[in-house]
User: Fold these one by one.
Assistant:
Number 1:
Amino acid sequence: MRYFLKFALIFLLALPLATVQAQTPAPATAPRAQTPAPATAPRAQTPVPVPAPAPATTPRNEMARAETVLGPGDIIRISVFQSPDLTVESRVSEVGQVNFPLIGAVTLSGLTLPAAERRIETMLREGGFVLRPQVTIQLVRILSSQVSVLGQVNRPGRYPIDIASSKVSELIAAAGGVTPSGADVVTLVGTRNGEPVRLDIDLPAILQSGRNELDVQMENGDIIFVDRAPTIYIYGEVQRPGQIRLERGMTLMQALAAGGGLTARGTERGMRVHRRDSSGQVNILELKLNDHLQRDDVVYVKESLF
């Protein structure tokens, strides 16, 4: 009995201590630091290529397209929008036709480029092949339109107008340029609006002074003629008598210098210039050294009396 009481007393004393320990909170644990995820560099975006806009069509090119007439021998490229299988490059036959897929032979000779495009569009639409065709015709080479380059050029002959905007200077270059004996002013003979035209074109004014308005556009059947350069004649008491090229603004003094100057017996006094007027009559003139000479003048240098 005594041992039972002792055991009960020990149990009663130990019970509050256990209760206190159970209620004591555990020491707070510091929160674990979270390592931030490494920053990822933003992914570079590959720029999407933007197609370059189509080159603007100038009014000059539109006018050239509207005036260019197709003919036998011309080589053209025909394409239909969103129909690459219908793109063809063909030559206009001697009867003025080209063969085009689905519609066969098409007569295009005598038509301008816009009119030829509309004809093919109509045939594709009416045949039920393409619902809304958009046809484009490009000139590859023009062989039906030719011009003649004659006179004082290195390669005279007939030349095709390869591009619709061929100018006088371009055709002169194609003919090898003007020979040393050729004139600076060339003559263009042709037809414009059904009327014959004749134009004198100053090449140095185009190439040196930049007067591009003088460089006219060539058309089928035009003729360019390069005449001989204007000359004068000098004889008498000069070192080199004979024919001399008349340069622009040449004076009598310059002509004497071109002739090698006076001989030991020559004199500047009493020089005579023979000049033919519009009626064909020859007049004898006495000019000063700074006076200008004209085409086909004949200069005579007299012998000094002393």
Number 2:
Amino acid sequence: MDVFDEIEKTFKTLYYGWDGVEQFTGSGDRLRRLVAEMCWPMARIDEESNKCLKAVYPDPYDEMLVTKPINVWTFCPHHLLPCNFKVHIGYIPSGKVLGLSKFARVAVIYGKSPIMQEQYNRDLANFFWENLKPEGLGVFVTGKHGCMGCRGVNQELEVITSVLRGSFKTDGIVREEFYHLCRG
């Protein structure tokens, strides 16, 4: 029995109370597909995000560029409940640019496994920082967490995290421009 069979059996038993008996027609392999879609291994995340680097081009553009808001759905690793992130990515290129759609694609790929918002923010910033080597970079994420909205405190709170690199971290004017563009 592979890991997906085991997870599917556990879901059926605990979540649906099935004890291995199909009581819900039409479910097919839905649980297996759910687990396969929400639990990408890190090797696959790396492979898919690295494919986006084929869209890096030399370009003299040296002003701030912000892509926002990128809508990302993921799962809380503690409670396996959905989280919705609004991701804002800004950078000042240093001789090369990334195709605009690739920012969204990478942001979605990094949400393909249960992850804490703080770690998601760091991982995304590290990917762009290491691969684009920009003058500055900021990743600003607002998140709504199902684990807080439907259990525990029962509040739809907005959680805000940011990671800054280079001039976004060291230059207050650049940092303020980035935050202003994220909020505006």
Number 3:
Amino acid sequence: MRLRTKILGAVLSIVAVAVIGTLIAMRYDAPCKAAAPQPSGTPTMKAVLRRCYGPADVISIEDVAKPTVGDGDVLVKVRAVSINALDAHVLHGDPYVVMRFAGGIGSPRSPSLGVDFAGTVEAVGKNVTAFKPGDEVFGGKGGNFGAFAEYVKLNAAFAAIAPKPANVTFAQAAAVPVAAVTALQALRDSGQLRAGQKVLVNGASGGVGTFAVEIAKALGAEVTGVCSTRNVEMVREIGADHVVDYTREDFTRSGERYDLIVDVAGSRSLAEYQRVLKPDGIYVGAGGSSVRGRWLGPLWPMLKSFAYAPFVSARTQTFFASLNKDDLRFVAELMDEGKVKPVIDRTYESSEIRDAFRYFDEGHARGKIVVTFDEPGTPANSDTAG
């Protein structure tokens, strides 16, 4: 028995040391790496990179090799990009439990940044028939990211890329991919939204929230948006039937009942949400934009929902959006019909991208923050951009 106890104690000690070592390693931020020089004669482009984890100060704009086009590829000249919470997490390397394992412990495996983009097709591979040079497109760059650059290369068959509607600018189109597809999938897929139902969007003034309000209205719902005082009029203008100022009213004690709650803010408990859900209502956790913290961050409200779900009667859905071309085309149709119009808070030039991230990190943006990669005389946010 003593030997067994000693062995168990030794095993537990090893496990404890391993866990502590892993936690320390996940918190470690290595110094920024120096950029490798490009071989002489290599065609280059400007790209927004970060070679270490940290605040916006670690961002650099460097000359990197311009992508070469394969047989199935599309090369897009980027005109505008937008910042999402995902981009900030990739920059900072948090929450640790996800971003360090996925992106690299100590320092990022890839220095690239950015998902959302809009621009003009520069070239296509010989097997590509869906696009041609000159087409105006928008989409999302998955994998190792890299949309924050002068050019972005995508596989035409699998990438999330779609034609840009003629009635929106490049800046507006760049604001769409991650946020709008997240809102659409939260409402239509996880929330099983049907026309005539009552929907509450908590966090209605941010990137995902503004699209959730507009898309829910386009799908025929009666929409209530929850936001702060400064955003009440804006949320009403984009189509919300009712707007609740959470600084003055507790919507969980309003007596209203909803068929669907889309929770972008992550600011209330599942038990509180259940008070305003109909008996067959659905709660969808679509992030936790109001939740900070370097270990779990916006994952915390999702984990709480999983933990509380067996003890409440509400149907709960927590998901991560999957960016794809079909949903991009669906949102493009809504924009073309005038049912969805991206809300842009501020627009920055590419040389100001550090300031754009700093503003995003303040957590008060209304709608999206856009960064333009303009050519002289062709502003991406002008009415003539499309």
